[in-house]
Specification:
Layout lengths: L4 E4 L4 E4 L4 H8 L11 E3 L112 E3 L20 E3 L21 E5 L4 H12 L8 H4 L3 E4 L7 E9 L5 E3 L1 H6 L2 H13 L3 E10 L2 E10 L2 E8 L4 E6 L6 E4 L2 E4 L3 E2 L2 H14 L7 E4 L1
Parallel strand pairs: 2-3, 4-5, 5-6, 6-7
Antiparallel strand pairs: 1-2, 8-9, 8-10, 10-11, 11-12, 12-13, 12-16, 13-17, 14-15
Amino acid sequence: MDQDYIYDEKNRVVRICSPVGIKVFCREHKIKIEEFNLPVLLDDSITHCSGMFQDCTSFNQPVVIPERVAGCMDMFRDCKAFNQPVKIPAYVVQCARMFAGCSSFNQPIELPKYAAYCYEMFAQCESFNQKIELPLRAENTSAMFSGCTSFDQEIVLGENIINCWSMFANCTSLNQKIELHNTHCLYNNMFLNCTSLSPENVTIYSGRITQKTLEKRLRQMWGRDEAEDIADIAEKVNIVKVKTVKKIRITDISYTLEGNPPVEIEEEELAKLTSAEIFQKLEELYDTQKLTTLEISTRSASSMKTLAVYFDKELSAISVIDDWDESISYYDSGEDKEPVEIRGNFYPRHMVSDDRNILFTIIDDFLKTGKPSKQVKWIRE
């Protein structure tokens, strides 16, 4: 649909057909964006709602978000009057700053299971005080409730959290149970100015830790200066010792068979399979002798890597891409450097393999550790 909006003048209803629909409507009807408060309908063609109602400070109308929407970043940002129930669609991944600055908003919210990016979602929502269950896939919750001066709810932060920096900063009413299951994430100023929070309500799941390291972490969490005494908190906060096992999550697997479009194995399906079952499936694909590409992406608390393989029958070019430090490691066969063509790309022979056992040793180790196999040599670039 080419239109940004359709206006039903008789019923004074605006059908929004694109994320900029309201802004275009206001401009063409000479309405200030901060004065917009007409009933709206979101067209089913919309796939993302980023910034849709941003700065509509007077807007307070019911909104039904279409089920196919996957992103709601900044959707109601600074809608200071907005206080309507909102159902977030099942496949939304990005909901950063969705209600940031909505100072009147205080409605029950259920986060969808795919929501990974929730940073500043309710920042400065001064009236907000609703129970929130973070989905298992949540990764970035930095400043999620920053400035929510009424917020006082229990929260569990799971093992996949990478960043919870300033998550509860200035939540002056907060005094409920908070659990943190990943102490390798960014958590600076997590409880900054949480003046009502009793340390007894905070539980940190951690491996072996010295008193000095513990006090350093608590200073960072509470936003204390290095010179400040943290003993009052260190004595009361709950530290649960856990055996540290580095968990690797396989996030994506895609492959291509000769003459066919790429196939992606959904993360939901991957979650049901063991690494041994995935390994067996990949072996079966390889044995068809039609496999042309294979990519496996993994994630842990401290790394994101992709194993990429390009095939020409038994010959394969194997590399591991590190998304965090932007490096590539190529398998090193140690053989001569004459170029070899694989799928239109030329590789020095010492970067390819024709050994099935080597290939599946690399795949098996990557599925288990998320790293280049230590059983072979690599060329790092």
